[in-house]
Amino acid sequence: MTTDxxxxxxxxxxxxxRLPPVVAPQARVLARLLxxxxxxxxxxxxxxxxxxxxxxADEHSDVDALLRIAxxxxxxxxxxxxSLVRSLGPTLDVLFETPGSPFLFxxxxxxxxxxxxxxxxxxxxxxxxxxxxLLDRDGLLAEPYEPSPPWDRDLWLGWAWMALSGVDKYxxxxxxxxxLTALEKARTLLLRHHAAVTGIEDPxxxxxxxxxxxxxxxxxxxxTVAALDxxxxxxxxxxxxxxxxxxxxxxxxxxxxERLRPP
Length: 263
Hints:
The chain is of the alpha+beta class.
C-alpha cells in the first residue's frame, strides 16, 4: 500500500480504514486515538510516523504517533496522557508513566504496541517526510518541512574507530564482555555511517532503515559477528576495522587495524 504524506484531516478515517488487513489491530488503536484526540480541544494535531505511513508495516509493527498540544495546556495534557492511552483499549503495561513525561510506550493486551509523544504546538515547523496527518486544527502541519538531520556521519565514523580501539584494550585486560559490547557498538555506528553515505533515509536507525528502505548491507557484515570468545571477538573486530577503512583511511584507523590483527 502506498500512502499520501499530505492526507487531509477529512480523509483521516478513510486512510485508516484502507490500511492492510495484516495491521487491522493497529488500525483499530489508531482510530480510537483519533477519536480521543478529536474529543480533546487541547490536542491541536495528531500525526502518525514510521512503517504505517511508509506502507511497510506488518503484524509486528507498532503505532508511532505524535500529538501537538496547545502550549497553555501542555503540562496538564501530559498529565492526562496515561488516562488517554488506557481509554484506547485494555492495556498490559504503560512505560515511562512518570509525572510530566512527554513520551509513553503502551503494550495493549491484544499485542499492539503504541509509541506516543506529546509536544507543544508552537514547536511545530510543518509536516516532515513520511508522516500522515490525521488531525490538524490550526494548519500546523500543512506545509512540508525538511528537518535538519539529527546526526553527523563523521562523528559516527570517529566513534566507531574509538569503539574498535576499545575492543583491543578490553581484550588485553581480559574483559571479554566489555570487548564484545564495544564490537557491537562499532558495528552499529558502521551501519549508521553506511546508511548515510548510501543515501538511506533516517540513517541514525542504521540497519533498520537500510532494510526498510531497500538498501544494501556492507559486504562481509556477517563476519563482524562474534561469539563470546576472545579470539573470535578479535577476528570480528579486525573485519569491522577493514570495513571502516573503506570509508576513511587515517593514521588512527591504521593503528587500530594493526592492533586488532589476529596472531
